[in-house]
Amino acid sequence: METREMSESNNALEKDVTLTPEAAVEAPQVVETPEPAVAEEVINNEQEPSMPEAPVAEALEAEKTVEEIAPAASFAAMSKEQLVARLEELASQPIETVKDEVLQIKSAFFAIRKEEIAHEKEAFLAAGNEEAAFAVKDDPEEAKMKELLNQLKEKRAEFNAAQEAQREANLQKKQEIIEEIHRITSDPDNINRQYGRVQQLQQEFKAAGAVPATAETVVWKSFQQAIEKFYDLLKINKELRDYDFKKNLELKQQLCADAEALDEESDIVAAFKKLQELHNTWRETGPVAKDLREDLWARFKAASSIINKKYQTFFEDRKGKEKDNADAKTALCEKIEAISTDGLKTYAAWDEATKKIIALQEEWKQLGFASRKVNAQLFARFRKACDEFFGLKAEFFKRMKEELAANLAKKNELCERAEALKDSTEWKKTTDELVALQKEWKTIGPVVKKHSDAVWKRFIAACDYFFEQKKSQTSSVHAIEHENMKAKKEVIAQLKAVLESEDAEAAAQTVRELMSKWQSIGHVPFKEKDKLYAEYKEQVDKAFEKFDMKAVRANLASFESSLSQIGSDKAYHERDRLVRTYEQRCSELKTYENNMGFFNAQSKSGSSIVKEMERKIAKLRDEIVLLEQKIKLIDEKI
Fold this sequence. Notes:
Shape: rod-shaped
Helix content: over 70%
Structural class: mainly alpha
Order of helices and strands: EHHHHHHHHHHHHHHHHHHHH
Number of strands: 1
């Protein structure tokens, strides 16, 4: 099966855990094979010691059950489509070579199908349906699987029928051989002439192949009895008989040695199979001298008993290990099922939980098989828990991916808004807007790590650029404003000093000049503006009162009253008109002042003209001061 993070991951168990249950069966023992008998001298008619029956086919069949195992790891990792495709390939191969693989594929396929049906039923019941109404949906792959299995079943039946027919034919042939031997032994006078034919019949009997299991012991005993009878009747010279015994003795001594050597074999299953082969060879080997038969057979039997006992112990030990493995695997299932995903809200939390899952998977892989009855169930339970975890992890990562993408889009939008404001010179308004953007930024969740630094640097760069510009601008502005404040305080001090003058005309002229100077001075710190203007206005009012400048003051008061009655648009138009008038008066004043310098350089005859020009200059200055005051009032209103 494949593991999910696993990816965010899970994918983790999906590919790392591939487990196959293994069958645990009772170990069959080798059935001890009786010793065939041969004739000794005609006068010696003693029989071979009686031996137990030898249903070797049954022992071999029992052995096959040992080899039957649950789906191999390669099939457990396949999908249904892959299993069906593999079964189609096997369908074209000889049926006798694919039995185990077919069983493994069938087990793996229906394990997957069983899990699918369980999910279908769970979803059906979750939808509020009655359990009795549930019906399994048709599965095309299952239909293909069953069709292929039926085909293979038919091929197996045909094969078995052919095998059975062959066994029946073999049985018929062996019975014919036995009958021929009986016919030979029925003619004692010509028995010696038939020695070669009997040897040939023995080879034919051996080569005839297997017979039905129910008849194997009977036909074998019949053959042995016929052979024994033949050798009992055979009149053969002692040298030939002794040579035959000697040859058989060497073969059986070697078989005993080979059986005894199996005790050193580390793989007891392989040793057991080799012992079976040795027993088959023993059965096919002829007899030895009668006085050696029992001892030789006892030696071979003793070596066989050792392997049988070790083989039985091996399976008993394996049963114990399988129980321990089942308990350990049950504990791992409980551990992985106890891991809750409810509190996993961050990547770090999911990664930490994933490490635990992977560690449990590694621990599972180190365990051996449990019994065939429970191993597949435990694996299905363990895999289900892993799949559920990695499924939830995948959902979390998908959800977080969408959320991170949305957060990135929001932060990119804030970056664009900040970049649109960075070149603004409306310092107060833009500062408030950027501060608001920064607060909004804090409310947005995280973004993907590879974009996090870049988007933050982009945003903060725009903010920093604006505040650096503001800092550089306002620092110079603050210095200028403080200089302006100092200059305006000097104007206020000078106005206070003028109030001490007794020359009204000169004092009035000085007041006008100071008022003009005040208007020419730029902005002061915002916090000091109102306070300074109040002090200035107080001193101007006192000067207007003392030096009879009531007309200027009254004009300004009347303008201020009318200004409060008009809207902003008219105020803008009025300001434009006043500025044009102000520039015109300034131009006239400059002309008069230039002319005044010319006349001062002339004779006294121009004194009357000079006085007239001085009067006009004073009047222009009063008008300019008044215009400046009016423009100031409009600016304050706007």
